[in-house]
Amino acid sequence: MKKTTLLLFILASVFILSAQKEEKPKLIAGPVIGAVTKNTAKIWIAYRGKGRNMLILGDTSEKRVYYPTNYSYISNAKGEVALTMDFTGLKPGHTYNVIISIDGWGANAKYAFKTPVDSVVKDFNFLLGSCALMNIDPTRVFFPAGSNWIFYRMKKQKGDFMVWLGDNIYYLYPRHWSSYEGMFKRQLDIRKYYRKFYRDFLAAQPNYSIWDDHDFGPNDSDSSFVLKDTSLKVFQGFWPNNYPDQNKFRGTYFDFKQYDAEFFMTDDRLYRGSPKDTNSSFLGETQLVWLKNKLLMSDASFKFICIGSQVLNDNNFGESYAQYRRERNELFDFIANNNIKGVIFLTGDKHYAEVCKRDWHGYPLYDFTSSPLTSPPLPRRIFHAYHNQWRIKGTDYPLKNFGKIWISGPAGNRTAKLVIYGRGGYKKRELSINQNELSKK
Asked: Cβ contacts of residue 276 below 8 Å, gap of 6+?
């Protein structure tokens, strides 16, 4: 009897091990369209299992198939993999179907994207927003941010791409930010749980993202956060941006161009010191030098500097660049003294939307804040929190919202139209800025 039991145990063990080895891969999240240029694209997916893992791009014009030329990934202890695939050799102005063709997954081409056309100047538009609280545990009953309906409305707007301005997800509890496994799980849980509007939106157009405190670590966290390097690894593993050479530049900052506009995506967490120290940094010396050099070299009509915290607001409620006046004023002086034409700041975090304007030694600085996407809005009755002396009257919107910017007009006379939409997709505020206004008088 004992021999029979032992034999059955051995056979069962062999069967289980064999089944594990032959586990077919399973798509568990994605795809997410990342950085796209005229000739390249990054696509993100998450899967579990082993096999020939492949995602293919199909050129609808030439009926040609493209395979990834490079890839990077991170994984967790459960064998779940967050994979970013690089595609090269693409053609400008072509539409590419995203074909998931992986063992056990079948093949589908539900999603597609278009590469920019080969032109220096072209009318285009993009979406922007921040503060996307999407809770998935039972406490979501108490959060007005439980719905992701706004992403359906954003997809209907058909933006050429999306700029995420931080707090793209929320690490809510210590279990989310206190380990690599916790961060990985939280990021993946959001991608898996919100499978309808959020998933479809991430696959509807290219996405470019920066982070803020809630997708970096604890609330208001800065460079003292002990797991900052772990957080950096997880963020880069889930957001397929074109990061610079990490041997020279450590952080989430990068830049990209879209026709005659250039975007400078900054990292406002990894080098942020304590706001109690008047000499502490916000972007840090290396990143600030990088940003200044990029601005000097740029010939773009519009130069969008994207930062998680508000830039112009001086009311000292919550977090803002104003808490680091030495570094902020140094950047403002640099822009004005060098007459860096076309600068507009794009910011998030405040849980309301507005456009601010401030004259700095003859240079008109603008700050367009788009917040929140799904998080609870900031009540207007908290007067000090809502007060902002630099706000352009009539541009504020205190409820859930997203932004959209149109760039249009002939070369040399381009206009940026800044629009705030409510969560239902209806236009709430609008302001136009001509490129020729954005220079020192």
From this structure: none
